[in-house]
Fold:
Amino acid sequence: GQSLEQPSEVTAVEGAIVQINCTYQTSGFYGLSWYQQHDGGAPTFLSYNGLDGLEETGRFSSFLSRSDSYGYLLLQELQMKDSASYFCAVSGGDYKLSFGAGTTVTVRA
Amino acid sequence: GAGVSQTPSNKVTEKGKYVELRCDPISGHTALYWYRQSLGQGPEFLIYFQGTGAADDSGLPNDRFFAVRPEGSVSTLKIQRTERGDSAVYLCASSLGGRTSTDTQYFGPGTRLTVL
Structure:
């Protein structure tokens, strides 16, 4: 089976940097994805890491260390619209995604 | 462009009733997935279709749950004899091919099911 751990909540001010860590224990591993979900909305794909290292997409970056079973999502230059839940998800080689419980990010003025 | 759409957006039903939830995937996507999301949790996998066939239904909780995709596009999730514990948001996702684990899954807004 799959088990993912991520912090439940993070609060920061506009313009700050936030890092959301994700550790996983899986029976199979292909890659780590990150999704953003606003209240009542659809999970929206942010990034995918299949290999070790950093992937950068605008203000968001994601990192993976396969040897440490660890990844993180970095949100830079925080904006009010970044207030949402963020989920890490593992692709275990069988097409389905296994999600963590999510991290609620609250951005304050 | 059109994303994944789901209808209805909200469904309230009584315990014991039958419900159908519909998903329209992104045009051209051959893979379709159903997930269930309870409050404060991440989505949990229910079933995966590749074309018309259910390639993996290991996440369906019991035999009251069934899903079809007869023409390889629209899918319907069917729940018989609903129970209060079935209350959740049911999410549908689609991906281009589904044949590799790197295929990005695109989610719809979900159907919020409430069983009274």
In short: Chain B touches chain A through 27 residues (CB under 8 Å).
